[in-house]
């Protein structure tokens, strides 16, 4: 009886074992199907997909020859640190904390600009003026130079004294 039980167990374990030939048949069938699909796909020429070019309208129109079209923000300022403002100034920074404005002005001075700090008491903001001019055309040229460099948000200020 013990021998029969051992034989039954041995037979059960050997019959559950998957044969390598079954795996090989499944692999060969999948490989043949893949090759057939590749052959069918080669018969058709793929059409390249071209994404349309999206253009955005410009947010600012720059008129090179006409200085009159350039906007200027009028403000009443008091010079806190500097020699004094002329009629038109190029502002490269605005801060509510004086120390931040003085720091930027010092960086500009180190770069060779006659930077100044002015205070607008109506909105409690310190303006960092990089350059100041008597005429608008010179101020526009200077502002454009600053915008082309590190100060893309530079703007023009008209000092209402």
Model description:
The longest helix has 23 residues. The protein is elongated and about 115 Å long. It starts with a helix and ends with a strand. With 161 residues, it is an alpha+beta fold. It contains four helices and six strands. Strand 4 and strand 5 form a beta hairpin. Helices cover 40% and strands 21% of the residues. A six-stranded mixed β-sheet has the order 1-6-3-5-4-2.
List the helices and strands and how they pair.
Layout: H1 2-16, H2 20-42, E1 73-75, E2 78-81, E3 88-95, H3 98-110, E4 116-120, E5 125-133, H4 136-148, E6 155-159
Parallel strand pairs: 1-6
Antiparallel strand pairs: 2-4, 3-5, 3-6, 4-5
How many angstroms separate the termini? 118 Å
Low-confidence stretches: none
Number of extended strands:
6
Shape field: elongated
In helices, the fraction of residues equals 25-40%
SSE succession:
HHEEEHEEHE
User: What would the average pLDDT be, to the nearest integer?
Assistant: 83
Number of helices: 4
SS class: alpha+beta
Strand content is 15-25%
Which strand order does the major sheet show? 1-6-3-5-4-2
Cα-based radius of gyration, to the nearest Å: 39 Å
């Amino acid at each position: 009886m013990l021998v029969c039980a051992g034989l039954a167990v041995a037979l059960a374990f050997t019959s559950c074992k998957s044969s390598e030939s079954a795996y090989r048949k499944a692999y060969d069938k999948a490989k043949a199907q893949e090759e057939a699909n590749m052959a069918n796909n080669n018969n058709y020429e793929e059409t390249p997909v071209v994404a349309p070019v999206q253009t955005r309208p410009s947010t600012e129109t720059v008129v090179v020859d006409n200085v009159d079209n350039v906007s200027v923000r009028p403000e009443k300022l008091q010079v806190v640190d500097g020699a004094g403002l002329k009629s038109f100034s190029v502002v490269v920074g605005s801060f509510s904390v004086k120390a931040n404005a003085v720091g930027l002005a010092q960086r500009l001075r180190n770069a060779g600009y006659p930077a100044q700090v002015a205070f607008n008491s109506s909105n409690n903001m310190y303006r960092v003026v990089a350059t100041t001019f008597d005429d608008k055309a010179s101020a526009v040229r200077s502002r454009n130079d600053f915008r082309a460099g590190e100060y893309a948000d530079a703007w023009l200020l008209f000092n209402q004294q």
